[in-house]
Amino acid sequence: MINVNDGQVKRFAIWTSGGDASGMDTVTNGVHAECQKRGIILIGVHNGVMGLVGDTLLAQTILRPGDWEWQQGTSLGSIKGEREFTKQQYKNARRHIETYGIDGIIVVGGNGSMAKTQEFLAEAGIYDMPVIVVPKTIDNDAPKFDADNIGFASAAKFGGTFLRNTDGSCQSMGATIHVVRIMGQKYGSLAYEAVKQSRFERDMYGAADIVLTPEVLYNRESLFTAVHAALKTSEWRTGIQRKGLGSATIVIAEGIPDADGMFRESKVSNQMIRSDDMQKYVMDLLKTEFPDYAIKDPEPSYTLRGATLCGRDHDVAFAAGEYAVAQLDTNPNLYSEPHMILHGYLPSDPMSIISLTEVNGAKRTHITPAQAKAIGNEYGFVLGNEPPDEIIEFFARRGARCPVSGLGELPPPRVRLARSAPELLAIA
Q1: Nearby residues of 238 by Cβ (< 8 Å), 6 or more positions away
Q2: Residues 107 and 195 in one domain
Q3: What would the pLDDT profile of 76-125 be if each residue is shown by its tens digit?
Q4: Are 278 and 199 in contact (CB under 8 A)?
Q5: Quick one: 365 exposed, middle or buried, by C-beta within 10 A (0-12, 13-18, 19+)?
Q6: Number of domains in the chain
Q7: Which of these, 150, 166, 250, 374, has the minimum number of CB atoms within 10 Å of its CB?
């Protein structure tokens, strides 16, 4: 139960917003630990701002969140997408914030959550509330960042394991083409990193032959040439000629265009083609060109959001939670507009904050086509836009470098000597 604030002890509220990512609960844990040090009461609001708009505040005082520390996702619940609220719901939110004496708000979300929180508070008539956002996104698309966002490393590691496992199945079955969708509406960062993570220490390449992302516009001719070359190369991958039983793995980021370079409007957001439609589109293209091959869609998809939390994401998330409380408690400049934490790759790296004004209009520096090509050369995949001759030469070089298992020629046939009838009777 939360008591009405007597004004003597500071109270901070925390909620989580947007698509979930590994490390969100760890942020809450870090926030709680720092609040305990500073004598601040922490209130966890359920399901984002939805916990504020009802007649009763859906929230609890967070006392012992230690059990959450290594959990995936968020125990507080989250909301995603656009929501419309009535005037009464905004009044409810203001009443709850004033009644329970909230002195500051921490939001675990992205730049979209940052803007929506400011808009929500303004509609509720709350203009002087300090807000700080701890960014998380498995797409790795938060602007102004040089380091990976919280949740990205965990998702990439899970995606790499998934690719490695499904590629082994693809090779075993033969005459199979896998089209694996990896999340990433605007950028292919997660797709590239998942392929990197899929490489075994003893292998020369990752578990993908072709990677299609929004940054590099592929075309039909190059895509088909690449698949033909990958199938041909894989027929000799284990040192056994399996003619007609080659395999290929294609990784696509969900925001890729069609084969004509067009980004189609989504049925949902009116911005971009839906990822499941785009995956089906690519599979339909392949079925016409490769009718004798099984075209399958092994699907990590949204399970990437629930990836097992890795050590790096855990440590950075906890440190970012502590830093958020310290800023809310001591920085007087947070009253003007929401701010977002800029963290480094390691928890020991310096952290800073930027305002919503600085975030708006800013973009993250992402992988360029030249950088993507360099990654492909190292990890053994093409991008589906290269000239056909270059693709054929690439896979020829890759096939020559692939390790061949220790197989040799068959032994000579065994010659069995004919035995006489008495000898056979003696054996019997």
Answers
A1: 171, 404, 405, 407
A2: no
A3: 888 877 788 999 999 999 999 999 999 999 999 887 788 888 899 999 99
A4: no
A5: exposed
A6: 2
A7: 374
Q: Could you tell me if residue 243 is inside a domain?
A: yes
Q: What is the distance between the alpha carbons of residues 379 and 49, in angstroms, rounded to a whole number?
A: 43
| Shared-domain flag, residues 127 and 192 | no
For residues 36 and 127, the answer to whether their CB atoms sit within 8 Å is: no
User: How much is the pTM?
Assistant: 0.84
Domain CATH for 234? 3.40.50.460
Residues 287-306 pLDDT 10s: 999 999 999 998 776 678 87
Distance of CA 197 to the CA centre of its chain: 13
Domain that holds residue 63: 11-149+309-359
d(CA 105, CA 129): 7
pLDDT at position 275: 55
Closest CA to 282 of 254, 258, 266: 258
CATH of the domain at 90: 3.40.50.450
Backbone φ and ψ of 28, nearest 5°: -60, -40
- Helix H or strand E segment including 353: strand 352-355
Flag whether 279 is in a domain.
yes
Gap between the Cα atoms of 96 and 94, Å rounded: 5
- The reply to whether 235 and 377 lie within a common domain is yes
Residue 175 buriedness (CB in 10 A; 0-12 / 13-18 / 19+) = middle
At 251, give phi and psi (nearest 5°): -105, 130
Residue 365 one-letter amino acid: T
Same domain, 138 and 31: yes
> Which structure tokens are listed for 166?
């499904």
Question: DSSP string covering 208-261, please?
Answer: -SEEEBTTB---HHHHHHHHHHHHHHHTTTTSS--TT--EEEEEEETT---TTS
Q: Which amino acid is residue 114, in one-letter code?
A: M
Q: What one-character-per-residue DSSP string does 361-374 give?
A: T-------HHHHHH
